[in-house]
Amino acid sequence: MWEKINPDLKMRLMTDADVSLGMALKNIAGWNQVEADWRRFIKLEPQGCFVGNLEGKDVGTVTAICYGTKFSWVGMVLVFPEERRKGIGTTLLKQGIEYCENKGVEVVRLDATPMGKKVYDTIGFKNEYFLERRQGTGQTVKAEGVECLLEEKLAQLISYDELSFGASRANVLENLFAEYPNFALTHFSKDGKIDGYLMYRPGYNAYQIGPWIADTEEIGEKLFCTALSKLNNEKIFFDLPLVNEPAIKIANKYNFTKQRDFIRMFRGENKYPGQPKLIYAISGVEKG
């Protein structure tokens, strides 16, 4: 497909024994993942998570997850600082892309930092839209009409999510619900159909809200307020698409301030964009 930037870098599949390596790398970067996140990457795509080894030393990671053959996500491209500027990160990235494209996936997507975007521009990625990470604190806010997700409604939630996300991510949502069954909130229309939901999970630096999807600003705010109340006084992060103006409005209303920027990018023909204007928070930059 293409030559490796660093041909001396050896690739091997990541296993649960590498979770400590992943945690060490992401701690250096200051990212929010916990051990459960790494184990979930491996569980969801056991042939798509890799460790790069240079001269007998594990030096970096990359993860991939495929959402059928519509599109995939590449993330967790991490390299120890002393090993940077050797082409390791780019070689890892290309390993993740190659894995996805060899599986017949039509589009490879990722959420880039402004610095990382410079590399992605050179290998065929294009901008889709911009994201902001917002941070704030949980607070008691009154909200009505929101329920905790019941297992018998999970299939309905998965179908609802696919319309906005652009592909089925049943694997991700089922695993998140299994791990954190009390951290999933739903809102139903008068005829009993889901018209909004929000999931959250513990992170290393803060609780992470997402995915968070809603048909209207009113529903989105009800879900968010319920989550804020459940996480009263806790530090919270979420990543919002800037194409969703109501999400920006809600974040500002509850004093969630900007922490950093991301750019959602894609490689290939973006045939399955979903409905980002209904996405109030993505699941995470490492998996969409």
Q: Write down the CATH topology of the largest domain.
A: Aminopeptidase
- Global shape: globular
Order of helices and strands: EHHEEEHEHEEHHEEEHEHEE
Number of helices: 8
Q: Please identify, by name, the CATH architecture of the largest domain.
A: 3-Layer(aba) Sandwich
Q: How many strands in all?
A: 13
Runs in which pLDDT lies below 50 for 5 or more consecutive residues are none
Mean pLDDT reading: 96
Query: In percent, how helical is the residue content?
Result: 25-40%
Distance between the termini: 25 Å
**Biggest β-sheet, characterized?**
13 strands, mixed
Can you put this structure into words, describing what you see?
There is one protein chain. With 288 residues, the chain is α+β, with helices and mostly antiparallel strands. The chain has 2 domains: 10-105, Aminopeptidase, CATH 3.40.630.30; 133-281, 3-Layer(aba) Sandwich (Aminopeptidase), CATH 3.40.630.90. It contains 8 helices and 13 strands. Strands 1, 2, 3, 4, 5, 6, 7, 8, 9, 10, 11, 12 and 13 form a 13-stranded mixed β-sheet that branches. The chain is globular, with a radius of gyration of 19 Å. The model has no long low-confidence stretch (mean pLDDT 96).
